[in-house]
Each structure stands twice: as C-alpha cells, then as structure tokens.
Design brief:
By secondary structure, the chain is of the alpha+beta class. It is built from four helices and eight strands. It has helices at residues 11-20, 62-77, 108-124, 145-152; strands at 2-5, 32-39, 53-58, 80-88, 90-92, 97-105, 128-134, 137-141.
Length: 157
C-alpha cells in the first residue's frame, strides 16, 4: 500500500494496521517486520547550514503511480507478506517525519532487503522535489552521489 499525504503518521498505528491486514484479523505469516522512518534534519548535508524548514513537492497521480510500481517490483523480488510506503508532502520542520517504509515477510532477510531497495529508490528516483529553507535562503536538494551508487546495485542491466 502507498500513501502520499500532508499530515503526519503514527508509526505504531501503521505497524498494527499492517499486522492486521485488510480483514482486521491478526496475521501470523509475518516473522519479520522492518521499518524505516526518515525525518527532517536541522542541518543541510552539503553546506552544513541551518535548516529551518523543508518543503516537499510532488506531481499528484504520477507520484502515486511510480510508488505503486516500485512497491510491486519489491514484491516481485522478495517474498513479502505486506508493505507500506507513506511519504509526506508540504512544509515540514526539523524533527518532523518525512517518510515511512514498512516491509513484512516470513523471514528477516527479505524484509530488510526490500526496505533497503524501496528507500534507495525513494532517495534517487521517486518524483518528489525537496527545497530547504534557512537563514541563508532557500535551495533545492539534489540526490547525493552515495544515494545514486546505492540505488545502482538494484538495476537489472
């Protein structure tokens, strides 16, 4: 499941909903649940400047379609019982949640690898645009070389 939203998310509630599944019954096929939560930092990685806010923009419709596509690919690569991607948009402040990725599988290796795959994609290729604000003004955030290198390992060439 994927969601793009402006409001915050409750990590514990999201895990519980995933564990219950669409029928509301507790699932017993999940031996491993891996979560990743990304938050807004108060410093900019490239200039070491102060960040007072981050604004995330997206292209509605296209963003959800791309996130669904990559989630489907994760399910094709690993035996996942369930997954969730929640990505926020709009103005966020340091400490605010940005993204939540949850993967669940019978075994931990698949859950860990799928979560890493989804985050590597989100950091480099998902159609989100980030603009940081601080005392020195505003600047767009570009993918880091290390993120691009991490994502390259998942390509089938």
């Amino acid at each position: 499941m994927i969601r793009v939203q402006s409001g915050d998310f409750d990590i514990a509630k999201e895990i519980e909903a995933l564990r219950k599944g669409p029928t509301g019954d507790s699932r017993t096929d999940m031996g491993a649940i891996v979560t990743f939560t990304g938050t807004v930092r108060d410093t900019h990685g490239m200039t070491e400047g102060e960040v007072t806010a981050m604004t995330l923009e997206h292209y509605p419709g296209m963003t959800e379609k791309e996130l669904a596509r990559i989630e489907t690919e994760a399910h094709a690569r690993w035996p996942l019982a369930a997954s969730l991607i929640v990505h926020r948009v709009g103005r966020l402040e340091p400490g605010d949640n940005i993204v939540l990725v949850i993967t669940a599988s019978a075994h931990r290796e698949a859950a860990f690898e799928a979560a890493r795959f989804l985050m590597d994609y989100l950091k480099t290729s998902a159609p989100f645009w980030k603009r940081e604000s601080g005392p020195e003004g505003k600047s767009w955030v570009e993918a880091k070389k290390t993120d691009t290198e991490a994502a390259a390992r998942w390509r089938h060439d």
